[in-house]
């Protein structure tokens, strides 16, 4: 008998987190005053990125590897929506990456440093740095791919 890789509870949590990440990304897009026609797409980009990240974490990847794996489809989706909607890719990329940015890691690194716990500060700082580098590398990999050139029809 085959076993499912994810339990129904884990699948339910993933679905809930998908919608929560989409709502958070949508809120961030509104805060950034993105054009109204791009708002649902911004939310979808962030939700997909978070879904891939959480799925990778469930399968045992470390946070930096999961971040790298998540930012690749996120950036691809941002490029696709940018071409389809004729808008800059940064509209989708800046808002979509919001759930993946390691803000808590930066906070705790600074907190532990101020408290004098240098070992904890260094550990949090290194893990946060690895995640930030993974995000940057993933974005650079996808944005480095050549864009198809479209010629107008006559």
UniProtKB/TrEMBL annotation:
Pfam families: ThrE_2. It is a multi-pass membrane protein. It is found in: Cell membrane. The chain crosses the membrane at residues 14-34, 41-59, 65-85, 92-114, 120-145. It comes from the Bacteria. GO terms for biological process: succinate transport. Its main location: membrane. Residues 18-142 form the Threonine/Serine exporter ThrE domain. One of its GO terms (cellular component) is plasma membrane. Keywords: Cell inner membrane, Cell membrane, Membrane, Transmembrane, Transmembrane helix. Belongs to the ThrE exporter (TC 2.A.79) family. This is Threonine/Serine exporter ThrE domain-containing protein.
């Amino acid at each position: 008998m085959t076993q499912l890789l994810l339990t129904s509870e884990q699948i339910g949590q993933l679905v809930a987190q998908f919608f929560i990440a989409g709502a958070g990304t949508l809120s961030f897009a509104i805060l950034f005053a993105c054009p109204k026609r791009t708002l649902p797409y911004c939310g979808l980009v962030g939700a997909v990125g978070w879904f891939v990240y959480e799925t990778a974490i469930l399968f045992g990847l470390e946070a930096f590897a999961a971040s790298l794996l998540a930012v690749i489809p996120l950036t691809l989706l941002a490029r696709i929506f940018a071409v389809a909607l004729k808008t800059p890719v940064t509209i989708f990329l800046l808002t979509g990456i919001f759930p993946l940015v390691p803000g808590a890691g930066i906070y705790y690194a600074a907190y532990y440093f101020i408290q004098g716990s240098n070992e904890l500060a260094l550990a949090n700082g290194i893990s946060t740095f690895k995640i930030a580098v993974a995000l940057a590398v993933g974005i650079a990999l996808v944005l480095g791919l050549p864009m198809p050139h479209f010629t107008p029809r006559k």
